[in-house]
Amino acid sequence: MASILQTTDRGLYCPVGDFYVDPRVPVNRAVVTHAHTDHARWGCRHYLAAQRSEHLLRMRMNDDAEFEFLPYGESISVGGVDISFHPAGHMLGSAQVRLEHRGEVAVVTGDYKLGSDPTCESWEPVPCHLLVTESTFGLPVYRWEPEQVTADAINAWWRESRDAGLCCVLYGYAVGKSQRLLAGLDPSIGTIYTHGAVEKGNEAYRKTDVELPETTFVGSLDRKHDFTGGMVVAVPSANGTPWLRRFGRISTAMASGWMAVRGARRRRAVDRGFVVSDHVDWPSLLKAVELCDPETVWVTHGYSAAVARYLQEIGREACVIDSRTRSENDEDHSQQTIEGEES
């Protein structure tokens, strides 16, 4: 399998096709799994990605970059390596990259999750010989509730806060997480407002025909506007800043997979914590490996040693690789500045 994919100091490299998958640094040719910045590095000369990610990638890449986009399931040959993209379920346009050369198949999952999400295509299993999987939440403690259960809990909090004369502020990362949260909100409860970074992400989603409820950009309103009873979807970096003063009396909440851990809400200094993650939880990770049924599993980012050890114990050939540079303590730490988004 080393002939298809190798680990290098620049990231995962395909020597036969002379391209990188989610490179760490700018390279000549990059095949990218999705538009978050730890996967789609700024400064590459040529990008190949799934068609559904086009608006997000063009929104944040340099103007002189060359782009090529493929619909899910279609393939292109690069240096004798057949490349195709398959839904990853992480966010709009996210994809697993399938590489095939001389009958050997490698799949790079990027970031992914199983289950439903109204803002993107659902993950699908891709049989392979080598599977590269993330392990952001690769411990048994991480188990997600069904999508609708969490959405109902968020809407219940909003109703309670509205009835108490408060404005809700819900924190989620600007691109991907925020749009997923918006899709689950009930507009009949009140007006939905957005931070500038979130609204810019909304524009790309709407251009890709993803249905989102009507939103109002906070910056478009008069400073004396009354936000009572409303819902503000904002980026985590806004928490604790003077920007919050304009909303009056507020109730705050964080939406993150880390909210599953006791003490995480307290460290974030918010009133509520909702467990919402765009990454696989423990049972979903194991299910994905089972369904793809690879001969070898490379585990990266997060609790990679624990996951690799468990897979070995159940009879899988697995090892840890270092393909990322981002912090293991921040979910989607990579979603860097888009009109104020934290890096």
Automatic annotation (TrEMBL):
Extract the GO molecular function terms from the UniProt entry: RNA endonuclease activity
Region described as Disordered: 324-343
Matching InterPro entries, A to Z? MBL, RibonucZ/Hydroxyglut_hydro, Xnuc_lig_assoc
- From which domain of life does this come? Bacteria
Listed Basic and acidic residues bias regions:
324-334
From the record, what ranges are coiled-coil? none
Per its UniProt record, what PANTHER family does this chain match?
A: BLL1145 PROTEIN, CLEAVAGE AND POLYADENYLATION SPECIFICITY FACTOR FAMILY MEMBER
The name on file for this protein is: Putative mRNA 3-end processing factor
